[in-house]
Amino acid sequence: MSGQDFKSDTETENPTVITDRSLIQQEEHARLMNRMSLFRLMLLLCIQNQGARSAQLVSGRQLTEQLDEIYEQERIYAKRVYENLDWLREKGLVERRDSEDHQHDYRLTPKAKGFVKRHAELVVGLANGQEYLDIVR
C-alpha cells in the first residue's frame, strides 16, 4: 500500500480528517514509539477525537477533562497534561495556538495524524493475528 498515491489530509478542508497513511513511515512510527508513553498516546487520541467531533482546536482544559473521564481511577492534573503536550510539541506532533483569553488550544500536525493512523492499523492488525511486517508494509 505504501507505493500508492493518497490524498494528503493537508489538502482537505477539515484539518482533523485523517486520510493519508503515507504521512509517516514505519521507521518513524517505531522511533516515536520508543519514547511514547500510553498517556501521550491517549493525549493524541483525545486531541483527534475532540477535534474530529467539533472541527475546532481543543483546549488544554478540555483535554484534562476528557483524560479525567478515561482515567477514572486516577486524578489527572493539568501540569501532567501540559508537560506531555510540550513533549508532543517538541516532537512535531502537536501545534499550539494561544487564544486571547490566555488559553492554549491544540491540534494534531499531519505527522501526528499519520502516526495515529499507522498505530491504529498496527493495533487492529496485531489484534486480528496478522504478522507485524505484513501490517507495516
Report on the architecture of this protein.
- The chain is mostly helical and 137 residues long.
- The chain has a three-stranded antiparallel beta sheet.
Descriptive tags:
mainly alpha; disordered N terminus; 6 helices; three-stranded antiparallel beta sheet; 137 residues
Strands side by side in the biggest sheet: 1-3-2
| Alpha-carbon distance between the two ends | 7 Å
Helix content: 40-55%
* Dominant shape: globular
Largest sheet: 3 strands, antiparallel
Query: Rg to the nearest angstrom?
Result: 15 Å
- Oligomeric state as shown: single chain
Low-confidence stretches: 1-16
DSSP helix count?
6
Global structural class: mainly alpha
Secondary structure: elements and pairs:
Elements: H1 26-33, H2 38-54, E1 58-59, H3 60-70, H4 78-90, E2 94-98, E3 104-108, H5 110-127, H6 132-136
Antiparallel strand pairs: 1-3, 2-3
Helix pairs in contact: 2-4
What would a concise description of this structure say?
53% of the residues lie in helices and 9% in strands. The chain is mainly alpha-helical and 137 residues long. Strands 1-3-2 form a three-stranded antiparallel β-sheet.
